[in-house]
Specification:
This protein is α/β, with parallel strands linked by helices. The chain contains eight helices and nine strands. Helix content is 34%, strand content 25%. The radius of gyration is 18 Å and the shape is globular. The termini are far apart. The protein binds adenosine-5'-diphosphate and magnesium ion (MG). Adenosine-5'-diphosphate binds next to strand 1, strand 2 and helix 1.
């Protein structure tokens, strides 16, 4: 377990201009993710979720506002291996084995790989890929490739984990399995987590709180607490209270009156 790092986003704005088009991807977005919490971010396609994550990671510079991760600016947090990230497309290097793909962030940070070998084996066991260390990505199923991406996101022992629609390309049954796995993995790492998803059910099952975003301009319209105790079991998906919360979040997602003039 690593000591988790909290994330604070304060007054973030980011506008893209080009070819006569102006897109206000973020307008005055603030969000506080306490250390060790799990926050899900939902919102329609194009509303600014990935932009918010890229700004939080320091991969994109905001026009206004501030990001801190464990009290540091995001660039320093990334350089220190404090953050880990997995995207929808597992983006594995096809010529590298599973364990070589997982090792990549360590190489980027210039860390010594020798002592990491045992850790990489443990991580692959944690994500259910023991025995596949030497496989190539092309030999794996979509779900297995996403597990490799999650192991890679965890290899620096990040204190803050960012996940951008990591299961978006998977079918519903596999996605449910991965949700249950991710809950367990998150519990074992103890990191703060921010998950972007368009699955309301996935957001509720995994998160302590769900931030609902809308676009035009991109902003957070509501932060909803998820009251269900942990550990959560698959039976939760069938409970009335779960469906009520699902309906409430769907209402917030589709509420056009929340659009700014
Ligand atoms: P989401 O992840 O919620 O689907 P994004 O954050 O990817 O949304 O995009 C938000 C908006 O900003 C979209 O309209 C998108 O086209 C625009 N956008 C994102 N990145 C860029 C960029 N690099 N250049 C121009 N427009 C961009
Ligand atoms: Mg996106």
């Amino acid at each position: 377990m690593t000591a988790p790092a909290g994330l604070t986003l304060t007054g973030l704005s980011r506008t893209f201009r080009g070819r006569g088009k102006v897109v206000e991807a973020l307008r005055d977005v603030s969000l506080d993710c306490p250390a060790g919490s799990f926050t899900a971010l939902i919102g329609p396609s194009g509303c600014g979720k990935s932009t918010m994550l890229r700004v939080a990671l320091g991969l994109e510079t905001p026009d206004a506002g501030r990001v801190t991760i464990g009290g540091q600016p995001p660039g320093s947090a990334r350089a220190a291996g404090v953050t880990g990230v997995a995207f929808q497309d597992a983006a594995l290097l096809p010529w590298r084995t599973v364990e070589q793909n997982v090792a990549l962030p360590l190489e980027v940070l210039g860390r010594d790989l020798g002592p990491a070998a045992a850790r990489i084996r443990d991580l692959l066991a944690l994500v259910g890929l023991a025995g596949h260390e030497r496989a190539l990505p092309g030999e794996l199923s979509g779900g297995m490739r996403q597990r490799v991406a999650i192991a890679r996101a965890l290899v620096t022992e990040p204190r803050m984990l960012f996940l951008d629609e990591p299961f978006g390309a998977l079918d519903q049954i596999l996605r449910r399995q991965m949700n249950i796995e991710l809950q367990r993995i998150w519990g074992e790492t103890g990191a703060t987590a921010l998950l972007v998803t368009h699955g309301i059910d996935e957001a509720i099952f995994l998160a302590d709180r769900v931030a609902v975003m809308q676009g035009g301009p991109g902003r957070i319209v509501e932060l909803v607490e998820v009251p269900f105790p942990r550990p959560r079991t698959p039976g939760l998906f069938a409970e009335d209270a779960f469906h009520r919360l699902e309906d409430r979040l769907a209402g917030l997602l589709h509420d056009d009156s929340a659009h700014a003039a």
